[in-house]
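To fix ideas at the outset, we first show an illustrative case, written as a sequence plus integers encoding its fold:
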Amino acid sequence: MKTRNYIYILLVWLLLCLNAAYCNAQKTTNVEAGTKARLQDSVYNSAYVKKLYAQYPTVKSVFCSGCRLWVNPYLTSIADTVKGYPVCEHATFTAADVSAQEAANIPRSGVYANWNITPGEPNYDELYSYINRLINKPMSLFEIVYGHCAAAWILMAHDKNGAILSNTEIYCEFGEYQRQNIGTMISSEDTTRLLLGATLNKVKHPVLADSVEIWAGCVSSDTSKVYSFKG
């Protein structure tokens, strides 16, 4: 009887040791994976962004006197750089892009969320801040924010370069009310993703289209970012 008890105790001890070893191995694997991810992300910094944009310079467009053409692997855009908005932007998204975006799960923070400028163009942060001080409705649906046109962030974030380039001032955005940004725009983005078989609210939807082309732009004689800072 004593022998059986000893064997039982020994087996329990062995199981506990194996479980502890497994947990430690999993912890080590998770730490190594986390370290590897952090090292990979450390490459994506402001210097990387600058080099990325340098690969895709803009060129003069005949569309208008102030227009320039920007072409990269993700989108094509003609922007009026004098008035400060995209005249015409085009991007194509596929079911494979949506699947890749969901698998990559790139965080919308840090370098992947910052708005950037192409070389030689002005930054509009100060202008938007000035407009919002005039409106005086901070953190509300009436706040003016950077709004994507054709190349919405979540559609472009099937890889890290796409996520970065989607946030490009002038060529990919124009100022819009926050209520439009979180209303009409998100609805349009979700409709595109649903057609391409996205997972929304934990429900995987069927693929209804191999690809979706999006055309967008801001064309108006009365629309311009050339404001006087004196009002």
Observations:
- The chain is about 45% helix and 20% strand.
- The beta strands are 59-60, 67-71, 76-80, 85-94, 144-148, 173-177, 199-200, 203-204, 211-216.
